[in-house]
Amino acid sequence: MKALIVDGYVDEPAHFGVPPYISAYPRYVAGLLKIAGYDFFYDTIEGVRQHGLKEADMLITVGGVTVPGNYVGGMPMTVEEAKKISKKFVGLKSIIIGSMGQYEVDRSGGVVANLKKFEEYDFSLWYDYERKLYEILTGKVWNENRYSLVKIASVAGAAVIKKHPNFPDLMCEIELGMGCEKEIKCSFCTEPLWGKSISRPVDDVIEEISSLYKSGCRHFRLGRISNIFAYMGEKHPDPKAIESLYTGIRSIAPDLITLHTDNANPGYIYSHMKESESIAGTISMYNTRGDVLSMGIESFDPKVISMNNLKIGKDQVFDVIKMINDVGGSRVEGIPKLLPGINLLYGLMGETKETYKINFETLMKILHTNLMVRRVNIRKVMVFPQTPLFEKLNGMEPKTDERIYAHHKFIVRKEFDHEMLKRVFPSGSIFRDVIIEYHEGKLSYGRQIGTYAMLAGIPKILSLRSHVDCVVVAHGQRSLTALPIPLKINKEGYDMLKWIPGVGDSSSIVILKRPFNSMQEFVQKTNLKLPDWMSEMVSFER
Description:
Number of strands: 27
Structural class: alpha/beta
């Protein structure tokens, strides 16, 4: 029997799988197929769009976007595509896995998801999908808990990453746990539907990462958990467990390139500040620079917080942000090790025009108190059946004033993001291993592999998927302008030279006066002075 895995990409509250990320879903599925004795193909939705479906006896499609965003590395599968794939499949059995196995919903906020099984598939699986798939594949029941099966499947399926078109430039999303430790759940979130918070054993995580590392993975994010500070802790944090996790990873993957994390509950951090400070210190010590703790603050408006059972008030947020800044704000080549990220959500109960004002003023207060925030994510809520928000709205769509929402997003990007970006990534900051993803005009755009990786625009056409080190020279609202280093001043054209600090409109003088053999000769011939940090990055190669 031969199976076809179609990775339609996922974007769920604590689980990301859009390139350059690969989620745990296809890796676990590959492992379960190996356990059951199946041969299999792995393909992405991009591959299916280009060349159609490969022939197989069984189809397993992975998909689901429940926290929609903007995507550069790939476009997640739509509901319509999922249906067409199954209709075109001519094998014996078809299965859909992921949040799309529970909800028919596409990439859009401000809507209500449909709680509906796909009629086009023989099986629709999400919760506890590993044990259910095991039973479908083997005809046997897995009587132990889910993580005992995940332990085997995650290792057995690790090598499937080699089949991904981005490999080896691929970030593996690593599952640490599931569920939510909050007693009273946030009104909108689907993570509590997985049940009470449960953590995956430290040794199991390390064993999976070891297998992925041996298969060629060098980029890891500790995700698939709603709050890393509650890992192995639940009611109280367990700093020793997290230290064991990080030291274990560093031991078995000594040459990793990226080690990042994802979600953190600011309310939990505030309630356990001493232990959380210790945990943040551990993360900052063993991670790689540019890491982000994504905090679901959702709103600073006290009324919205109260009506939606949110995690923390705006006054407490400052203490949490300051602690993370103090512990994680140290820089490597200009890049902070660990910073908070803020999620703001609109369309919640109790929201008014005043909510937008409160949120904006609070962000500006963060800016003016010289704290650092890595990024602010603004989106509209998606309403899911079985959540308190769905019940309160009686299944109706959430209401947001489109005009106010659009203006709010614009003003945050203009007034807050631009200034914060200059603070977090000052000119002279060095980005290593930026991978070129696309071209626009005379610019090449690329990102490092990492959590909420910054987009860098480079004023030169570079080969797609090539790797380049670069230095920051200017700031937009959500992206940076950077120059490749070392900068070959005797070779580069006008479009590149004009971005050099200290050159600008005088780039024609540089072109007329070159070649140069040294910085001293450059200054003498052009009468231009570069910042010291830029001078160190110039090459006089001819």
